[in-house]
Design a protein that fits this description.
By secondary structure, the chain is mainly alpha-helical. The protein folds into 2 domains: about 1-30, no CATH class; about 45-110, 434 Repressor (Amino-terminal Domain), CATH 1.10.260. It is built from 8 helices and no strands. It is elongated and about 45 Å long.
Length: about 110
């Protein structure tokens, strides 16, 4: 409870709470969780998730290894692999190089 109050004060200070409260969400955490689930349903997010996990399986590597190779946090790499985030083009390019993926698959993600 104390963490929620602290988080709410931070959000208020930065003007970030107006949307989720006015939409009836009990907490910012629940609202973010909902947004993550919505993003995971997008076709391009599903495709990116599939490509990352499949390529890692074929190489016998894990998300931690990939995150260190391309210079991003393991948490962000996890969110990308779960379809919650799409990284910027520079990060995707580094990811494709490390995973030896065909750039045609990248074009199909960007078309959506």
């Amino acid at each position: 409870m104390e963490t929620e109050i602290y988080s709410e004060k931070i959000l208020l200070r930065h003007g970030l709470n107006s949307g989720w409260k006015s939409q009836g969400w009990r907490s910012h955490y629940m609202y973010r969780k909902y947004l993550d689930e919505q993003r995971q349903e997008k076709p391009q997010n599903k495709l990116l998730s599939y490509l990352i996990t499949t390529a890692l399986k074929e190489k016998g590597k894990n998300l931690f290894w990939l995150s260190k190779k391309i210079g991003i946090s393991p948490q962000f790499m996890y969110r990308c692999a779960k379809g919650m985030n799409i990284p910027n083009m520079d990060t995707i390019d580094r990811m494709w190089q490390v995973l030896d993926l065909d750039y045609d698959t990248l074009d199909s993600i960007l078309e959506d």
